[in-house]
Write a structure and sequence with these properties.
The complex is a heterodimer. Chain A is an alpha+beta fold. Chain A is built from four helices and seven strands. In chain B, strands 1, 2, 3, 4 and 5 form a five-stranded mixed β-sheet that branches. Chain B has eleven helices and five strands. Classes of the chains: A alpha+beta, B alpha/beta. The complex binds iron/sulfur cluster (SF4) (4 copies).
């Protein structure tokens, strides 16, 4: 029997509530609000309370999928990234950098968001960057 | 405290002990075990209060053979009584270790603060229910005013289900609050006041006034006051003190003994 409580931050929105993941016998069984966290002070919204469900969900994507002629095929990461890069390059070459937009998210970290906008501005060459928090 | 928990684990009195440990500067719940006994040196008793008895119930459901020790404030003791009464956590499987509870004039050192109601702002005093009021003060409000004040509180609900999730005595596999035939799904605020009243009725003979729900409520709805009223009715009608003992609740319907009998005094006065 093992029971662990792993402190973390909710990844759903920009508020960044403190959560505790409850891990029993190596299995993620629940999410709790962190009582002493200065941001949420022991409270969570319904998304935070159910964080563990998207981790254990049957529907979670575990591999990159490539849409070829309407069929989703499982491919390796190198193939998936290579394909995406080729298509992006072609689109930028044909229609210009402003034909591309980058949507970033509260569900990724600050640093990843920074990288994404850097990618848009420096690699693609567009200011078309938007974020789900700017509703 | 640390020595006692260590001794309990070493003697095999318990297989796991639920308490708190400082982690990243926060007192977090922690399961102490014999295998990592040195961790008991970092055991702390407060000040945060997590639903340790709920964790114990979850462990017991998976591992009926494990003996579970836990820090027990006064409300934890009451919760353990209720959990035993409702066949969720057998009393012989748990070993509570009493700790200091809420502060009072008589007991300045405390590991908890939940009996101190939070300060209330002007708007809430004007439109809502101040959580620091007594049940009598709420009862003294005129009917329509009382209703309007409660509705003001309920319409703030964001339906996070935190009150149910954190409650040590909410253990149902299928919860009525998520049943589409009972409570409309998808809308915010949820169907009021039915959402809150369904939960309030379920807390009759069950709520042990720990305050965890109110503490977890992002909308600061005075849930404890509501459930306190429900259990005052249970006390009046059935002379049942929720959580005070392992006496069967008047609402337990399992078994062959009828339990739903009114209090003796009331039965006489009705004749
Ligand atoms: S719990 Fe809710 S409010 Fe808090 S960070 Fe997660 S999504 Fe945002
Ligand atoms: S005070 Fe709230 S959390 Fe505690 S037992 Fe009652 S309903 Fe449950
Ligand atoms: S709210 Fe009612 S149905 Fe839901 S878990 Fe609590 S007691 Fe059970
Ligand atoms: S904790 Fe408060 S906001 Fe959340 S569902 Fe319960 S009453 Fe509503």
């Amino acid at each position: 029997m093992t029971l662990k409580f792993v402190p973390s931050i909710c990844s759903y929105c920009g508020t960044g509530c403190g959560v505790l993941f409850q891990v029993m016998d190596g299995q993620l069984v629940g999410t709790l609000p962190m009582k002493t966290h200065p941001v949420n002070q022991g409270k969570l919204c319904i998304k935070g309370w159910n964080l563990h469900e998207h981790i254990t969900s049957e529907l979670r994507l575990k591999h990159p999928l490539l849409n070829t002629f309407g069929r989703m095929t499982k491919v390796g990461w190198d193939d998936a990234i290579g394909f995406a890069a080729d298509r992006l390059k072609t689109i930028v070459a044909e229609h210009g950098p402003d034909s591309v937009g980058v949507l970033v998210s509260a569900k990724i970290t600050n640093e990843e968001n920074y990288l994404a906008q850097k990618f848009a501005r420096a690699a693609v060459g567009t200011n078309n960057v938007d974020h789900c928090a700017r509703l | 405290m640390q020595k006692q928990v260590r001794a309990w684990l070493e003697d095999g009195k318990v297989d796991v002990f639920l308490a708190y440990k400082m982690d990243c500067g926060h007192p977090l719940p922690h399961a102490f075990t014999r295998e990592r006994i040195d961790e008991t040196e970092d055991l702390v008793t407060g000040p945060a209060r997590y639903s340790l008895e709920k964790f114990a119930t979850q462990i017991a459901a998976r591992h009926p053979e494990k003996k579970i020790g836990l820090l027990a404030r006064d409300c934890t003791q009451r919760a353990l009584n209720v959990l035993a009464v409702w066949n969720q956590l057998p009393a012989e499987q748990v070993e509570p270790l009493p700790v200091n509870c809420c502060p009072s004039a008589l007991k300045p050192h405390a590991d908890c603060t939940y009996l101190e109601a939070p300060a209330t702002g002007e708007v809430k005093i004007q439109c809502g229910q101040d959580p620091r009021q007594s049940i009598e003060a709420v009862d003294a409000q005129e009917g329509p005013e009382r209703f309007a004040r409660w509705m003001y509180e309920f319409q703030k609900c964001i339906k996070c289900y935190g009150c149910r999730n954190i409650c040590p005595v909410c253990f149902c596999k299928d919860c009525s609050l998520e049943h589409p035939d009972l409570i409309g799904t998808g809308n915010l605020p949820p169907d009021i006041p039915i959402f809150h009243l369904v939960r309030a009725v379920h807390m009759a003979g069950r709520c042990i006034d720990c305050g965890l729900c109110e503490d977890a409520c992002p909308a600061e709805i005075p849930l404890r006051l509501l459930y306190g009223k429900v259990n005052a009715i249970v006390k009046d009608l059935f002379d049942y003190d929720t959580g005070a003992s392992d006496a069967l609740s008047p609402f337990s319907i399992l078994g062959d003994k009828p339990t739903l009998t009114p209090a003796p005094l009331l039965a006489v006065s009705q004749e």
